[in-house]
Amino acid sequence: MTQWSAERTAAPDMTIAFVAYPGITMLDLVGPLQVCAALAELVPGYRTVVLGERIEPMGTDTPLAVVPSHTFDEVPDPDVLLVPGGLVPTLAAMADEELLGRLRRAAAGASVVGSVCTGSLLLAAAGLLEGCRATTHWLFRDLLVPFGVTPVAERWVEDGRYLTAAGVAAGIDMALHLVGRVAGADVARWVQLMIEYDPQPPFGGIDWAAVDPAEHAPFRQQALVRALGDHPELLARLSG
Amino acid sequence: MTQWSAERTAAPDMTIAFVAYPGITMLDLVGPLQVCAALAELVPGYRTVVLGERIEPMGTDTPLAVVPSHTFDEVPDPDVLLVPGGLVPTLAAMADEELLGRLRRAAAGASVVGSVCTGSLLLAAAGLLEGCRATTHWLFRDLLVPFGVTPVAERWVEDGRYLTAAGVAAGIDMALHLVGRVAGADVARWVQLMIEYDPQPPFGGIDWAAVDPAEHAPFRQQALVRALGDHPELLARLSG
Q1: How many domains does the structure of chain A reveal?
Q2: Considering the domain boundaries, does residue A218 fall inside one?
Q3: What range does the domain containing B178 cover?
Q4: For every residue of chain A, which 3-state class applies, written as one string?
């Protein structure tokens, strides 16, 4: 493993902004954040920030609470914007016009707008993905359709400036791809080595042939009802 | 994918405690935390907690700050104790007698005591791993030797009640193995599906034949000096 070539260190200033909102799935945020923070540590010119409405603790889908590093207003124009997902809180956020507005404004000047897991449902609800190919968590993929988005069953999907990842852990793969794109494959491989991302799932990969989303439809519908009970129009639109 | 068998849901009450301390590597904590939080969500009888000295924000190796869910004193006797690692702050913590004392006390009654990445150096510094086989981040593996620990180059290592993982991302693999051990392979596969852990590293796995730790020894020594400048005896012992 050689280190990245010297000319790569003359990187442009680039701010990679992650979004935090209450109830997010922690690994959706932290997988790609760790990858991008390693990039920022290794190569001058990159910085990572975590944007929130306020700089104060917010709950997640784990017992851990997190505190963003900046408010949206403090970093109005990031180069890269990445939105994590979650379960009920993210589905509910599809109807949160204030958050969707913040995403639209933060995305306006970004060269890469991305998501992990159901984060793409927020980009879709914000109207950003209309006419695009995109992905999300396997259980929620066809919820992209009512927003005019073409769902794709891939680990990550690039369409123009949009870069969406599949569920939760897929954010790590997507972020390494992103690092390779902006800083080169050697840097991405170096980041991968530093975070020792050499996966050995103890039970092997997922056997997709044995996964039937229809079998889990009641679980998904329950989550939608909990999330969007106060928004019957959107709920009806997504309940198929 | 079938769901786990019904008899598995009659799990014993089990508290899985993660340790947080300032400067940790976020993914060391959040990878296995997400896996275990999914277990707790899916199967009654399991709970996850994050232990800290105080329930207040602490910095990490990313721009994100985190807030533990409980103090050490509130959960004095967890069933499983898992210690994340980090770079300079973790190396410095090898000399933090207060933290090491907390780890010894929390570990006293635990049936599984584990670590991710350089977290095993803290277990070793606390005297818990003496005579054991263990692993850690590839760059720091031989630092286990001065503590009487046999370093092993595996993704995770089990020796009696001790379960140590390699660097950063290895914590996800280790945690799935742990879930399989305590709740059965079907539950572990279900957790894996929910967090869509079906890795596709965009540049493939790590080419270990091309990694020479000696090449990176100066970087490691620099980190040790920064961490242990005030502890010359320990520094000398670890500087070989």
Answers
A1: 1
A2: no
A3: 11-200
A4: CCCCCHHHHCCCCEEEEEECCCCCCHHHHHHHHHHHHHHHHHCCCEEEEEEECCCCCEECCCCCEEECCEEHHHCCCCCEEEECCCCHHHHHHCCCHHHHHHHHHHHCCCCEEEECCCHHHHHHHCCCCCCCEECCCHHHHHHHHHHCCEECCCCEEEECCEEEECCCCHHHHHHHHHHHHHHCHHHHHHHHHHCCCCCCCCCCCCCHHHCCHHHHHHHHHHHHHHHHCCCHHHHHHHCC
ipTM beyond 0.90?
yes
Beta-bridge partner residues of A134: A151
In a domain, B226, yes or no: no
Of A61, A65, A197, the CB nearest to B67: A65
Buried/exposed B156-189: b ≥16 CB within 10 Å, e otherwise: bbbeeebbbbbbbbbbbbbbbbbbbebbbbbbbb
- Asked whether residue A167 is assigned to any structural domain, the reply reads yes
Percent of chain B with pLDDT over 70: 95
Q: Which residues on chain A are in Cβ contact (under 8 Å) with B198?
A: 155, 169-170, 201, 205-206, 208
> pLDDT of A172-198, one tens digit each?
999 999 999 999 999 999 999 999 999
Given a cut of 90, whether residue B1 has pLDDT beyond it is no
The pTM (predicted TM-score) of the whole model is 0.95
Within a domain: residue A237? no
**Which helix (H) or strand (E) element contains residue B150?**
strand B150-151
Residue B28 tokens read as 């060391």
What is the CATH classification number for the domain harbouring A170? 3.40.50.880
User: What is the token pair recorded at B202?
Assistant: 């965009």
Hey, is the C-beta of A49 within 8 angstroms of any chain B C-beta? yes
B32-42: per-residue pLDDT in tens? 999 999 999 99
B211 vs A contacts (CB less than 8 Å): 1, 193
Q: Does A195 lie at the interface with B, CB-CB under 8 angstroms? A: yes
- Which of B2, B16, B30, B173 to probe the A interface (max A CBs under 10 A)? B30
Q: Which of residues 125-154 of A touch B (CB under 8 A)?
A: 137-138
